[in-house]
User: Which sequence fits this backbone?
């Protein structure tokens, strides 16, 4: 699995970075957890601070475009994100 950041935007009001990424894979569509782990390693963050909002894949392609949010601290994650997403 390979992740490439397409667009990165800093959102100082919510204390987070917002990224649009492209994920390419060889086998089945990767789980959100594996994508969160890879983004955290790539973007120098911790796993609890990365929230993958969505991933859109097309039938027959082994790639997807996704949107993720990387927070600066865990308190801000709890304030902003919905409980079932955390």
Assistant:
């Amino acid at each position: 699995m390979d992740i490439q950041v397409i667009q990165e935007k800093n959102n100082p009001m919510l204390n987070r970075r917002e990224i649009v990424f492209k994920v390419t894979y060889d086998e089945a569509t990767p789980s959100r957890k594996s994508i969160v782990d890879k983004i955290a390693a790539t973007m120098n963050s911790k796993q609890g601070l990365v929230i993958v909002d969505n991933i859109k894949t097309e039938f027959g392609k082994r790639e997807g475009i996704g949107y993720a949010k990387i927070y600066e601290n865990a308190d801000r994650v709890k304030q902003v994100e919905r409980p079932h997403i955390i």
About this structure: Strands lie at 2-11, 16-24, 50-57, 63-71. The first strand starts at residue 2 and ends at 11. The mean pLDDT is 92.
